[in-house]
Amino acid sequence: MKFRTEVFIEPSPQKIEIEDHLFSIGSCFASEITARIARGQVRTLNNPFGTIFNPYSINKAIEKISKCAYYSEDDIFDYEGRYLSFDHHTSFDGDSVEQVLGKINKVLEESSVFFKKSKWVIITYGTAFVYEFLPQQCLVANCHKIPQKFFEKRFLSHSEILESIKNTINLINKYAEEGGQILFTVSPVRHTKDGMVENQLSKAKLLTALHEAVAENANCHYLPIYEIMMDDLRDYRFYAEDLIHPNNQGIQYIFEKFGNAYFSEATQSFINENSKIAAALAHRPINPESPLYKEYLEKIKTKIAEQQRKVSYPIFQNY
User: In which domain, by residue range, is 115 found?
Assistant: First the structure.
């Protein structure tokens, strides 16, 4: 007897290898998945501009990063003495134009270098809604808590979404690692503040355009994260207290399905072992000076050394 409808992911013939660079961009769920890959000590870079939800803004970010197109004073907006970029998260805001441009262009340079080495680009779309900043008549990735009266909210049209996705694919194919693979997902996080009906319409718009674009490109893949959460994990025990975001158990279930389909055996083993090491390093002893704890640390160092021999780049640098 079956008690749930499981969503299966077909194993990919192209596998993520230990030495691959993974670049990811998009909604907050992209960060959750990438954080687990990074914890496993595979090289990743996630959301260098901050969390971005809509296809138009994601495409703009990819264009800037791929071409390393520096920002100038004309790209910075002054709102009541706070300087900001509508393409970036509020963490890039500053007290002067020079300060903001310094942070933005430094990250842009670093992310551009990483992007061009990336064998895999993971993109997670969150919404088909977009905000237009009326004074400058431009679409924004982040409203920076500026009053709503300055913005107009609307759906991106099907043609706008499809064009953004296709442009993004073309940029990745041109600038990222030759033979690179693009993995698209739709965030399972419901944007309930838009309205329940509006959220479903938003996700449907993304899915329709996305499947159309993926079908035309052999190096593009669709990972059914949205479908897994909505159907396979429909029980609220897989959600956080807000009943909107997946909880740790739900995220781990999705991550394991993703890994089983896209990681090579070597990568899967490498990430699993390193995740155990990371958990062991996070342990806080009652007495750090005790002989038993020092022996415990030596065993961890031995395991790290064994894992280090498997890759050409340094691991566990932040521990």
Answer: 21-265
